[in-house]
Structure formats: structure tokens, C-alpha cells
Write a structure and sequence with these properties.
Number of helices: 12
Number of strands: 17
Structural class: alpha+beta
Mean pLDDT: 87
Radius of gyration: 25 Å
Distance between the termini: 6 Å
Length: 481
């Protein structure tokens, strides 16, 4: 279901499970359903059946310019779903499984779309129903008229909702048990693949860029959360860097039994796919992704980052002054933290990390990017465990330093960060002895100056992160936006 969030953007929740009722069951408990006093009609296309009503709380827009007896809005929605289906199957995706053999299937094997009033609380929902070996049938509910919504027109609203929510139906034909990160992330990504004039992606990517210190594969414990939808930026990166087929291939490798894996997980499947087909690995791909994230907003450079990076917000960066020491560094796997440094009158910058006793820096990389105004200079990437190198910052007005943890699992990288001139760093390192931090009993500062938390404002509790990071487990069906 798509729920209203900041900036009047609307998202959805991909519902899963076996539904005993549909919106046409007026006695059901689902809030998204027709009323008993409404007359429900439908129109059919080759592959879709669209249900609607002309009067009552769920009445569609009444215009009928061509006087064919069917409201134009209904006709347009029906044609739009055919267009969406043709686009995805044209890209090589499987059509969603048919509900032909189900008892409650809307009357036949066509995919069913119900135009109902969400009352501003949402704008669409894909509901999965009968599941076999993690692959599910389902149906769509969509806002009946978009009155009062932030979309510039009902047409735009329909194009966003149909392309996003129907992609959840496509996903359910591969594996409906995958994390909401890949479900929502690829659904947001897919909308502008279908129609490049839409701006859903631009509206959501800030959810990731404001929390890059959150592990990429960790979904929120709440149904709707900006990070989950903002993770679309990762799939945008994959598509631009490797070609749009990579997203299809991820879903193909999530099918139970694909590549010899009985119960695939998208994050592991991605790593194997990158090695098998794209001659790279997750560590290198994630480092490149993290580097591209420096080239957004005013620093956008399509030759070194996203084609549409100018329309994305800047990545969260913590301003620091030199010499800089942080004794409580902790970088979770598949995440990054960015420091924004004023070099002052220094001509060289050194960044060195002294690991906490027992901690490993083997998978941590340091990306250094001198900036003059909004122009990013030569980007340098080094291994955190290697000997620190001095970077020439003579002309830089600012230096962005990104700490990128490239592991896909395991303990976070922990230690002390020393940054400054070569002499300042030598003094910092000499004063820092590796120590065992032991059990963490107090919040530790992350790159955004926030308490160690997965999402939300700086007040997000430590407990939330511990639940998400340590006790997250896959669930049988996540609803999508």
C-alpha cells in the first residue's frame, strides 16, 4: 500500500499472504473495499479486468468525452496497465502468475485492478494471495480519482502507481519473500524505467542519502520508511553502471532453486551475479556506488556519477575541523560515512584509522575527494588497513572523506580516526593505543552526528538499531509501494 510521507510523496506497502476477501467483498474487514450500497462494474482488456463504481464513496471521475458509456478514467487505467505489462515483459520480466485456478479470482484469469478510495492515506496496493514455493498470485487496488493528492494530475498519479505497484506483482512471480529493500527499491527504480518523465526516484533517494551509515540490506522494522524506498538509488546505480538487465537478473536469481540455491536471498544472489557475469565483486561495486553518491546536487557530474545526479539531494556529511580525532568510529557492513573537512592552510591531508583491538579494517576503504567550490577533483581510494597516504589539498576549499565498509555481513569496522597534516596525524596515532571497546552500553556517534540508529531523526533510539541490525529476519511477504 502506498502511504503518504514527507514532501507529499506517496509510497506503498507490498502486502503478502493469502487474502480471503477482495475489495468487492463489502462485508470484509479490509478498509480498502467497496460499500454495500455501491454498484460495482468492470471493463476488460486482453490481460486485465478493472473494477469501478460510478456513485458512492469510491466513484471514479465521471468524464466520458467519447460517449462510449465507460468513464474515460477507467478506460485510461485499463489501457495503462496493458502498457505497463508490455513494458516489463518487453524487458524480459515474467508476467505475474495467473489466478485462473483460484476460487476467488475476480471472475476469470485476468489480472484484477480495483479502483477504490484510499482517502488520502495511500494511493495503491498490490496484495498477494495464493503462494506456492514463495511465488504468489495477487491483485491491485488503486486510488479511484486522486482528488486531494499531490500528483499534478490523475494521469500522472495513475502512471506512478500502476508502474510501481504492478512491479510488485511481477516480483511476486519470482519470490514474494524477499526483503522490502529489494522489493521497494526496485519498484521505485522501475517507475522511471517505464516513464522517464516521472520523478518518484528523485523524491525518494534522499531517504538513503540522509542515512548512508545504515547497512544496505537492512529493512526498517516499520512498514514504511524513507531508507527502504530511498534504496532505489542503489538499483539506479546498478542500472546505469551495468545496464538495466542487472535488476531482472537479480530477480531471476531469487527464484527458489535458481543457481542451485533452494532459498535465495537477493543480497547474496547479487554478489554471486556480479562475480559470475560482470567481472567484479560486491566490494568494488559498493565502493563505486559510494563514490557516485558524492556526485549529486551541486557536485553532480554525469561523467563520474549519475546521469540525473543534479536532481538528487547531497549525501549527508559531517563537518569536522582539523586536526580531527574520533575514538568511537563504527562503520556497519555495506554502509558508508562521510566527513566534510575544511583543510585550513594545510597543503597535505592524511587520514588514518587505528583499529580497536580485535577489530578488522580489511574491508574498509577510504575515499578522498578534494573539492573546489562545487567541483570535485581527483578522487583517491585507499585501503584503510594500508599505510596512510598524504593527499595534496593545496587548492581544495573542502575535502570529502568517505569511509566505505564493503563487507556484506559481519562485525562493523571499529577504531579511532585521525585526520590532519602528516605531523598532526602522527601525533594522534602515537597517542592512540588499540583498545577493546567491549560491550556497547551507550549510543555512539555516527557520521550524521546522530545516535547509533538505523533511521529517523537524531533522536532515534539505540534499541531500534539493535533490533534491526541484530534480530532482523526475513518475513514471508512484504507489501510494496
Amino acid at each position: 500500500m502506498r502511504l503518504a510521507i514527507a514532501l507529499s510523496l506517496l509510497v506503498s506497502v507490498f502486502s503478502a499472504g493469502t487474502a480471503s476477501a477482495r475489495p468487492t467483498d463489502t462485508t470484509g474487514s479490509d478498509l480498502v473495499r467497496y460499500s454495500a450500497d455501491e454498484t460495482i462494474e468492470h471493463v476488460d482488456t486482453d490481460h486485465f479486468r478493472v473494477f469501478f463504481t460510478r456513485a458512492g464513496k469510491d466513484a471514479v471521475l465521471a468524464g466520458d468525452v467519447n460517449s462510449d458509456g465507460t468513464p474515460d478514467f477507467v478506460t485510461q487505467v485499463a489501457a495503462l496497465y496493458e502498457e505497463v505489462l508490455a513494458f516489463y515483459t518487453g524487458r524480459g520480466y515474467l508476467a505475474p502468475p495467473s489466478d485462473q485456478g483460484q476460487a476467488n479470482n475476480g471472475g476469470d484469469g485476468r489480472f484484477d485492478v480495483y479502483l477504490v478510495d484510499f482517502g488520502g492515506a495511500a494511493d495503491g496496493r498490490f496484495q498477494s494471495e495464493v503462494c506456492t514455493n514463495m511465488r504468489c498470485t495477487g491483485y491491485m487496488s488503486q486510488e479511484n480519482d486522486f482528488t486531494g493528492y499531490a500528483y499534478p494530475s490523475p494521469t500522472v498519479g495513475s502512471r506512478v502507481v500502476s508502474s510501481h505497484e504492478f512491479f510488485h506483482a511481477v516480483q511476486a512471480g519470482y519470490n514474494a519473500t524477499q526483503s522490502s529493500i529489494v522489493a521497494e527499491g526496485t519498484a521505485v527504480w522501475s517507475t522511471e524505467q517505464f516513464d522517464a518523465s516521472l520523478t518518484d526516484l528523485e523524491g525518494f533517494v534522499g531517504g538513503y542519502l540522509s542515512h548512508p551509515d545504515h547497512s544496505l540490506d537492512r529493512a526498517s522494522s516499520t512498514p514504511v520508511d524513507p531508507f527502504t524506498y530511498g534504496s532505489a538509488i542503489f538499483f539506479q546505480f546498478l542500472g546505469e553502471k551495468l545496464g538495466h538487465d542487472v535488476v531482472l537478473e537479480i530477480w531471476q536469481d531469487c527464484v527458489p532453486g535458481a543457481q542451485g540455491v533452494a532459498d535465495p536471498d537477493w543480497f547474496s544472489a547479487l554478489a554471486a551475479l556480479l562475480t559470475r557475469k560482470y567481472a567484479t565483486d560486491f566490494a568494488d561495486a559498493f565502493t563505486t556506488f559510494a563514490t557516485w553518491n558524492l556526485f549529486t546536487n551541486g557536485r553532480a557530474d554525469p561523467s563520474r556519477g549519475y546521469a540525473g545526479g543534479a536532481g538528487y539531494p547531497s549525501i549527508l556529511a559531517t563537518p569536522v575541523t582539523l586536526p580531527y580525532t574520533d575514538t568511537s568510529l563504527r562503520v556497519f557492513y555495506a554502509s558508508s560515512q562521510v566527513l566534510s573537512i575544511d583543510p585550513g592552510d594545510r597543503t597535505q591531508l592524511v587520514v588514518q584509522i587505528v583499529p580497536t583491538a580485535g577489530a578488522s579494517l580489511d574491508s574498509l576503504r577510504i575515499v578522498t575527494a578534494p573539492v573546489v567550490g562545487n567541483t570535485v577533483g581527483t578522487v583517491t581510494t585507499t585501503e584503510a588497513a594500508a599505510t596512510a597516504q598524504a593527499i595534496d589539498v593545496t587548492t581544495a576549499t573542502k575535502i570529502l572523506v568517505e569511509l566505505v565498509q564493503t563487507a556484506q555481513s559481519g562485525d562493523s569496522a571499529r577504531g579511532t580516526v585521525c585526520a590532519g597534516s602528516p605531523d598532526e596525524v602522527a601525533t594522534c596515532v602515537a597517542a592512540t593505543s588499540p583498545n577493546d571497546m567491549g560491550t556497547i552500553t551507550t549510543p555512539m556517534k555516527q557520521s550524521g552526528g546522530c545516535d547509533l540508529g538505523a533511521h529517523g531523526s537524531p533522536a532515534s533510539p539505540l534499541a531500534l538499531l539493535l533490533v534491526v541490525a541484530l534480530f532482523y529476519r526475513r518475513r514471508p511477504a512484504v507489501d510494496g509501494a
